[in-house]
């Protein structure tokens, strides 16, 4: 759904994570910009329908939306520009998002991104 909204995988890979986060909420974004601060800018667009967003508490939805957009952006770029595409990075990023949800609930320390990327790189 994100790929069709962006137009292609390459165009989606070129978007920053902040654009990916609000992709699909252009109408609300332009309404907020037009009102000059009277309306809030949207926190999420199409990724609001993700299971990770629905699992989050109402106060953490914006934070997990931003985190999910960051991980999705990295996964799209890896899928698009790697010579030998693999799903190992996507699986690792999904696990990181689940750890971040757990962190918001319990306060447990999530794995650092550098450690996850290096682990996947050595597995290949």
- Please provide the ordered H/E string of secondary-structure elements: HHHHHHHH
Query: Which percent band covers the strand fraction?
Result: under 5%
Shape: flat
Gyration radius, rounded: 16 Å
Going by helix content, strand content and strand pairing, the class is mainly alpha
Query: In total, how many beta strands?
Result: 0
Helix content: 55-70%
Q: How widely separated are the two ends? A: 29 Å
What features would you describe in this structure?
The protein is mainly α. The protein contains 8 helices and no strands. It has helices at residues 2-6, 9-14, 17-22, 26-34, 51-55, 61-81, 88-106, 113-123. Helix 6 (61-81) packs antiparallel against helix 7 (88-106). The longest helix has 21 residues, at 61-81. The chain starts with a helix and ends with a helix.
């Amino acid at each position: 759904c994100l790929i069709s909204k962006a137009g292609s995988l390459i165009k989606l890979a070129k978007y920053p994570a902040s654009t990916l986060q609000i992709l699909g909420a252009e109408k609300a974004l332009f309404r907020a910009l037009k009102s000059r601060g009277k309306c809030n800018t949207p926190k999420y667009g199409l990724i609001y329908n993700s299971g990770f967003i629905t699992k989050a508490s109402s106060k953490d939805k914006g934070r997990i939306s931003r985190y999910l957009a960051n991980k999705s952006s990295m996964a799209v770029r890896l899928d698009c520009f790697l010579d030998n595409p693999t799903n190992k990075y996507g699986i690792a990023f999904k696990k990181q998002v689940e750890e971040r949800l757990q962190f918001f609930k319990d306060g447990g320390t999530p794995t650092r991104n550098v450690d996850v990327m290096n682990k996947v790189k050595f597995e290949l």
